[in-house]
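Re-run with default settings, no changes from the original entry. Doing this only to confirm the output is reproducible before filing.
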Amino acid sequence: MLVREITRIKQMFSRVKAGRSFAAAFTSCRCFHAEIVRHESSGLAVVHHSKYVCDLPPNHRFPMRKFPRVLHFLIKDQVITENQVWVPEIASKELLSCVHTEEYLNNFINGKINEQEQRRTGFSWSQGLVRRCRYETGGTVLAAEIALHRGLACSTAGGTHHAFPSCGSGFCLLNDLAVAAKYLMGNSSAKRKVLIVDLDVHQGDGTAFIFKEEPCVFTFSVHCGKNFPLRKQQSDLDISLEDGLEDKEYLSTVEAHLPWLLETFRPDLVLYDAGVDPHWEDELGRLRLTDQGLYQRDLYVMKTVVSRGIPVAAVIGGGYSRDIDKLALRHSIVHRAATQVWRECGL
């Protein structure tokens, strides 16, 4: 079925050269990992599922309730309409196995994670947690699929970059970025090259480990050097920042490396982890970015990539605050910046 679906999509997009518009070709096709396709809107696609959340114990450090609030504020503030929301399917065990070991997946899905492993992730195991992580991963895969066809897409979750093939870590149980990259690399006639731009305040150690010997994936991480994880992995390019860095210096750092990477690596897709934990109010951050600094960062990254004809899929990454609404608004910055890029670049 997957082969037939991909063939059909390729046939539809070949008609663009025969005079059909890019958008018209796209609205005729169905992304493989979408439950519902919104044909009515030609605006920025935002991927969301109501099951991005699960129940946690009271006062748990992870701000689980932020995910539906991100979508709430995007619609409330008229950044997007409901017609722009795409609903992902749950990530299958087969899909997840392109990154994670069979033993780990069996233990994770069936609740055989021991107490030490649960402490490492920060979560007690539950069926709801498994379901949440699988939908989140499906959402990142769908956002990447849409980006390949439309140029730009965002999810309202994702960025679980601390998960390794055989274990979870640091609130991350499945590595959604790695799964999306592996899946899209393996489902094209020529192996796609993927650049992962990770601007979460914490190094994407799991992602770096997974792709350390994969030449078709380039991992680029800009993170606070004295922050979690204590033991860093080696990304293809690591930029370690000192505590307290502010907007201007941070953006200058990103600007000094991103254009060069795009020109030399020449990716077919960029996966962008737009963590908001570099914000000065973040409880786990240690950097000093403002709301405006985050907006300029996101705008710069996506505009720089899209203007070169390279598709980009963005996920929200990390962000930690007891004030869920303030945090959700902060996470919505990437979608607001993406909407501006969508309009300015005529996607």
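The chain has one domain: 31-344. The first helix runs from residue 2 to 14.
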